[in-house]
Design brief:
heterodimer, A: 332 residues, alpha/beta, Rossmann fold, 2 domains, five-stranded parallel beta sheet, four-stranded parallel beta sheet, 36% helix, 14% strand, globular, B: 428 residues, Urease, subunit C, domain 1, TIM Barrel, 21 strands, 22% strand, binds zinc ion
Chain lengths: 332, 428
């Protein structure tokens, strides 16, 4: 795999080999996260800025936790607290942040392609933390990691992605990631919530969730936004739930061992019944937990990895600035 | 004191009547003689070049009044002259819009010192709001011959019918030009809806959003007998409907842009809004259909839709940036390269055919003959160059063709006998 400059799309990882590399690195960082002091010096001296044009406390905190566990300094810019509201162009904002001496910029934006634009203007590495309807690559990587944890692997697995695929950055990244590792993907949605042209997408489509459920290993539910109703994309949330919600009755059609995933935040009672969200088959809590380790792996690949890409023992050693507070048993 | 006479020497003259080698002598703003071995006080060398009637653009946004940081009549007309144009129809979506005699006069006044003739288009509706007819007769009296709400199509079918019925009764022959876009269907779309919009996660506008209005306006033109002109057609379906309507003797003309003849939606994959334009870049099949429409005469004109925007406006994410591209300085060379047509046919689409639609003929686009107006361009068909938006005479830099090597260059442009461009340099 060529050195990774930015992570804007799952495609930047160059297929299965690159994706597997992130997952292997994630294994190391899951181990770090389980330590009493989950911090390593891998990115000491580096600065990671988050530039969020859209509220997403969960994703921002996950990236910041990842950066801190790698001993990077962090800076945080959000729409409300910076000049972006005053009509400053995206380019000016990006250059201003870069001038503060950052090594990576984590960008979240409601416009598809905004991180690509930022990457074209700055020397720092850019990580896409979700852009419009386009992609959310670290979400897809943590989804992959979670599936691998639960099911052992992706190859030959059948995954249903259910709901508002058209407006979903998660779905676009997931389809690329799941199929790259050999899974079969079926998109299940009403015609209004599928992308208008699926040329080049290695997927099947269906409008019948009941028919699909018994044949899948994973059912991945997308968040259904209330505003889709006012756009006449579905007649009502009630009708959406009746046709595409994972109700208790429908969950009964799942094969033994099948898992239920959701990127969060959930609309309990809309795309997923509250009882189903709390079943052991549900991986929603695992997904959040794995998010930090996956983002550590991504930041490490972008900023810390040498040519061999394998974290050095030093990089994963305990943080040398922590010794006074280090509990005795940590090295075990 | 008598003006200096001028001879354009050693070129091949091409106009609507054909091609022949000839020198052209200009005196007092008009053509004094056309023939072999002529002389005059001053010589413009045209060796190896084509001497043609000046180009006429049916569709340029000069942005004045209101958006002078992007373009002015002066800078836009300089870009036009460098591109070989001696006349441009200035779109009326300015601030304020050209929807009254007062604003028409203002643009005409600005045009008096411009480097090409500036013919203001008027709006069809007041403020381009689509609810009330603008004073069409009053503007026609001042010389306006083309009306459009460009940037928007007139959405109200009944109001569009009224506009057509009203203009058929005017003493001047005018044309209603439409930016064909059904806003209900196109709403929120920033690029062509299809494979690439789906992949990139950008809201699309389907080809049908244009085609529905093309279909509607052809129906209304048949109903009312009005002359209509369809602007910047971008889809194969639109061209097919115009072809059928013309076979049916409906009075409809059509234009296409150089960028729709050369670029497709795939270019938006960079998310660079320099490729954002309305109507959007479409598919290879659409490009082929537009070229076929030019070749068989369905499409009358190549028009630039020159749409300057400031750097800041285009330094936003794709869906927040305004649509539009520069076009005046690159139109001829792209048309030569991509239309698949010989030079004679390209000139027909860039000069005498649009001049007739705009009501500017025969002063513009007329034959290069004794007594004719001296609005001329001299083209070196072999000169190679590289498109450099940084060197553009426009105030803006938003050309999607930056870095493209091209062949064919405007060498001189003569406006009413005055050489406004000599050897590729603007003279003022
Ligand atoms: Zn238009």
């Amino acid at each position: 795999m060529a050195p990774l400059r930015h992570l804007l799309s799952i495609e930047d990882l160059g297929g299965a080999a690159g994706i597997e590399e992130v997952l292997r690195l994630t294994d190391s960082f899951v181990e770090v996260s389980e330590r009493a002091i989950p911090r390593v010096p891998a990115l000491r001296g580096k600065t990671v800025a988050s530039l969020f044009y859209e509220d997403s406390t969960r994703t921002r905190l996950s990236f910041e936790a990842a950066a801190k566990r790698l001993s990077a300094d962090t800076m945080s810019f959000s729409v409300s607290s910076s000049s972006v509201k005053k009509g400053e162009s995206l380019r000016d904002t990006a250059l201003t942040i870069e001038a503060m001496g950052v090594d990576a910029i984590v960008v979240r934006h409601s416009s598809s392609g905004a991180p690509q634009r930022v990457a074209s203007w700055v020397g720092a590495s850019v990580v896409n933390a979700g852009d419009g309807w386009h992609e959310h690559p670290t979400q897809a990587l943590l989804d992959l990691y979670t599936i691998r944890q639960r099911l052992g692997g992706l190859d030959g697995r059948h995954i249903a992605v259910v709901g508002d695929v058209k407006h979903s950055r998660v779905a676009r990244s997931d389809v690329l990631a799941f199929t790259a590792l050999g899974a079969t993907v079926t998109l299940v949605a009403p015609g209004t919530l599928l992308p208008p042209d699926l040329t080049g997408w290695p997927v099947e489509t269906s409008h019948d969730l009941d028919a699909v459920l018994p044949n899948v290993d994973v059912v991945y539910l997308l968040r259904m936004q209330r505003e889709r109703m006012t756009e006449a994309l579905v007649p009502s949330l009630r009708e959406y739930t009746a046709r595409f919600g994972l109700t208790v009755r429908r969950a009964g059609r799942l094969a033994d061992g099948a898992i239920v995933m959701h990127p969060g935040p959930m609309n309990r009672g809309v795309e997923i019944a509250p009882e189903v969200a709390d079943l052991p088959a549900s991986t929603i809590v695992d997904q959040v937990r794995n998010g930090v380790a996956v983002r550590m792996a991504v930041l490490y690949l972008l900023l810390g990895a040498g040519t061999d890409r394998v974290p050095t023992t030093d990089a994963l050693a305990l943080d040398p600035e922590e010794p006074l507070r280090r509990p005795a048993e940590v090295d075990a | 004191m008598r003006e200096t006479s001028l001879v354009i020497k050693g070129g091949r003259v091409i106009d609507a009547t054909g091609a022949r080698p000839a020198d052209v002598v200009i005196d007092g703003g008009r053509i004094a003689a056309v023939g072999p071995d002529l002389s005059a006080d001053r010589v413009l060398d045209a060796g190896g070049c084509v001497v043609a009637p000046g180009l006429v653009d049916l569709h340029a946004h000069l942005r004045q009044p209101g958006l002078e940081e992007a373009e002015t009549v002066e800078t836009g007309s300089r870009a036009a002259a460098l591109g070989g144009f001696t006349a441009v129809v200035a779109m009326p979506n300015t601030t304020p819009a050209v929807d009254s005699a007062a604003v028409v006069r203002e643009v005409q006044e600005l045009g008096r010192t411009a480097l090409c003739q500036v013919a203001p288009a008027g709006t069809i509706t007041v403020g381009r709001a689509g609810t009330q007819l603008a004073p069409l007769a009053e503007m026609a009296e001042l010389g306006v011959r083309l009306f459009t709400d460009d940037g928007r199509g007139v959405q109200d079918t009944r109001l569009m019918r009224r506009a057509m019925e009203y203009t058929t009764g005017l003493p001047q022959q005018v044309v209603l030009a439409q930016h064909c876009e059904d806003e209900g269907l196109a709403a929120g779309g920033h690029m062509h809806e299809g494979e690439w919009s789906s992949r990139l996660g950008i809201a699309g506008q389907p080809a049908e959003a244009e085609e529905l209005m093309v279909m509607r306006d052809i129906s209304l033109a048949r109903l009312t007998g009005a002359r209509i002109h369809l602007q910047h057609l971008s889809t194969g379906g639109s061209v097919a409907m115009v072809r059928a309507a013309r076979a049916d003797r409906v009075a409809v003309t059509a234009e296409v842009t150089p960028h729709h003849l050369t670029l497709t939606a795939e270019r938006c994959a960079s998310y660079d809004p320099v490729f954002k334009v309305n109507p959007p870049l479409r598919t290879d099949a659409d490009v082929a259909a537009l070229r076929a429409g030019l070749a068989d005469g369905t499409v009358d004109a190549i028009a630039t839709d020159h749409a300057p925007h400031t750097a800041e406006a285009k330094e936003q994410p794709f869906d927040q940036a305004p649509p539009g591209m520069l076009g005046l300085e690159t139109a001829l060379v792209l048309a030569l390269e991509c239309s698949g047509l010989p030079l004679e046919a390209v000139l027909a689409h860039l000069s005498w055919q649009p001049a007739a639609i705009a009501g500017l003929a025969p002063e513009h686009g007329g034959p290069v003959a004794e007594g004719g107006a001296a609005h001329l361009c001299v083209i070196d068909p072999e000169a190679g160059w590289v498109v450099d938006p940084g060197a553009s005479a426009s105030r803006s830099r938003n050309s999607p063709f930056a870095g493209r090597p091209v062949t064919g260059k405007v060498r001189h442009t003569v406006l009413a006998g005055e050489p406004v461009v000599v050897d590729g340099e603007a003279q003022r």
